[in-house]
Amino acid sequence: xxxxxxxxxxxxxxxxTFASTEGExxxxxxxxxxxxxxxxxxxxxxxxxxxxxxxxxQSLDIQLEIIHGQRDRILTQQKLAExxxxxxxxxxxxxxxxxxxxxxxxxxxxxxxxxVTFALNDLTASEKRIIYANPKYAHRLLxxxxxxxxxxxxxxxxxxxxxxxxxxxxxxxxxGDKNTPASINREAGATSFIMxxxxxxxxxxxxxxxxxxxxxxxxxVLLNRHKDIRYLWxxxxxxxxxxxxxxxxxxxxxxxxxxxxxxxxxAEVLNALAQKQIASLSGGHFTAVGLxxxxxxxxxxxxxxxxxxxxxxxxxIMYPSDLFDIIKQKDWNxxxxxxxxxxxxxxxxxxxxxxxxx
Length: 358
What we know:
This protein is of the alpha/beta class. It has two domains: about 1-145 and about 285-315, Rossmann fold; about 150-285, Rossmann fold, CATH 3.40.50. The protein has helices at about 1-15, 45-60, 75-85, 100-105, 125-130, 150-165, 180-195, 210-225, 235-250, 265-275, 290-300, 320-330, and strands spanning about 15-20, 30-35, 65-70, 90-95, 115-120, 140-145, 170-175, 200-205, 230-235, 260-265, 280-285, 310, 315. It has a seven-stranded mixed beta sheet with strand order 1-3-2-4-5-6-12, sandwiched between helices. The protein has a six-stranded mixed beta sheet with strand order 8-7-9-10-11-13, with helices on both faces. β2, α2 and β3 form a beta-alpha-beta unit. The longest helix has 17 residues, at about 45-60. Its main location: other.
């Protein structure tokens, strides 16, 4: 009967649900997890988050359901509220504090018994104090999985400078937005590098809201306003594509006249890296939700909930390299997620492979 309701829910909301393989003995086989994805299923980053999490759920014998908020905070909350009124009630809900929406997303879950954990974007310290003071959440809000965005902001700007030959010049930053923790911390890291490096200066920062079309218009203005731009840093790949288009319109060449650095691992940005349109690329944080499922797996099988929250999931991606090939192939079904050491530092979200000797 439980499986019937899972399938009904999947069909009603257009979501994806994965049941465990019959005969598996782990207690996680009966665990139901709802992931509230704030993005679109077909966009590069959030689609990669889904694919890695789906592979993890199948490997861990977890029943995973995904709903998509389509980058609309109100719609995300509405979909979650509708889902929480339906059976079966999820055992765990994975949320993302996208654009500061985390507290509002907790409201429809509060009357239920579901445990909650966040991934990718954490609540603020003040928000946590308020929530932990609420008896309904004192023991239900569990430590999440968050990539070190400040660190990758710094390292990606540093790598961009090196890729441009460490030639003195001006930086411009196209950041994501002013409210999402990942955006704030990436921008802070990149700014920190620029402030420490005497050979470069920051001409301007703007906010492209993670969108190619907005970044395209912004980059056109920036290129016209600042004639000495050598380094153009963007907080994600979509905005980098907008910057590349703006360079082409201005008769400039990415990787020659202006060097572009960015974050994410879409097929398009990997191709741009191989073609030297992208000078510096970092990524890997799409694994955060799948690693949250690894936490749930251990907890469901009687182990203490792993308390660590900050993970160095980002890595610089070079072409050619083994990491480039792994991310390009996206063959996550070959990963044995039950053997990932969630307590390792640094953690390797792409190993061990199935069939590897233990």
